[in-house]
Fold Malate dehydrogenase.
Amino acid sequence: MASPIKVVVTGAAGQIAYSLLYQIASGSVFGPDQPVVLHLLDIAPMMGVLEGVVMELADCALPLLAGVLPTANPEEAFKDVAAPFLVGAMPRRKGMERKDLLSANVRIFKEQGQALDKVARKDVKVLVVGNPANTNALICSKYAPSIPKENFTAMTRLDQNRAQAQLAAKLGVPVQDVKNVIIWGNHSSTQFPDPSNALVKIGGVEKPVPAAINDDEFLKSTFVSTVQKRGAAVIAARKMSSALSAAKAASDHMRDWFLGSGDRWVSMGVVSDGSYGTPRDTVFSFPVTTSNGKWKIVEGLTISDFARTMLDATGKELDEEKRDALEVCK
Ligand SMILES: NC(=O)C1=CN([C@@H]2O[C@H](COP(=O)(O)OP(=O)(O)OC[C@H]3O[C@@H](n4cnc5c(N)ncnc54)[C@H](O)[C@@H]3O)[C@@H](O)[C@H]2O)C=CC1
Ligand SMILES: O=C([O-])CC(=O)C(=O)O
């Protein structure tokens, strides 16, 4: 058995963490042979609730759970961790856009960037879930200059999973038979869920999704807006934002980053190098492949005029969010 790795979940007393902690501690993220020590960070007033979460983790009797550390101190939480899931932040409510959370949440990621810079391993792999996730990840990276910027990512995997599920339902196939749908840009209502390179397996044969669906109007309008607005639809129904599916997506993101994405593309918000004409120095979601703990943007894709308009709109929003976030952090 490998020696345990330290994994931190922030917002550990919240609703996403409630699903996520089990997935990490049961081996679905880092593999069935990798023990974990869980560091649980939340704010001081939540320590009582967190105590209950600690009790429940013990009561799960999980063989891979090698230790649990609940704390309200970021430097204690981030000490020597390999994998931070930065979930802790205010969720939006009905009628809000995710960027409306910026002024409330971005300071959390400044403070946590500073703490990571001070005490985390330099090869730490950071996943930001708390909204607005892309811009929070950018700010976190900016305040942790001793850690390579490639090590900071934002979660758009939930959007990818939603897009894949929508296409599979339309085609009447199991969800795993659809692959390579892309989420470009911001985890917001300007994101571009792009099915143009997606593939579907039908009767054992792989075909392009656009040809299999053969309904351009559906792919450019209904499909795009359903995925863009899915988070708001869940809030309208549940009166709380998605948590079960968000935790599953966070697990998928980290698992693929650590263990590899195989023959599938996955979407991750990463610091843009300007690929595909996107704004540099924003955290932009791209199709990537992952192996040996590193991600690589899929190169050489054709960008249609429609896609160009969509990429430019979401890039513009990310530039605006960055400007606002830097102002808040001054
Ligand atoms: N990127 C994505 O796809 C998704 C992102 N989200 C976002 O994830 C975040 C968390 O959502 P929920 O778990 O539903 O919220 P929640 O309100 O249930 O839990 C948030 C937890 O974070 C804690 N927290 C607040 N400030 C903190 C700090 N400075 N340090 C550590 N913990 C802190 C709170 O005390 C609370 O326990 C929200 O911002 C939400 O919008 C939610 C779904 C999907
Ligand atoms: O919509 C929200 O505010 C929560 C979220 O990010 C999502 O469900 O995608």
Observations:
- The longest helix spans residues 305-329.
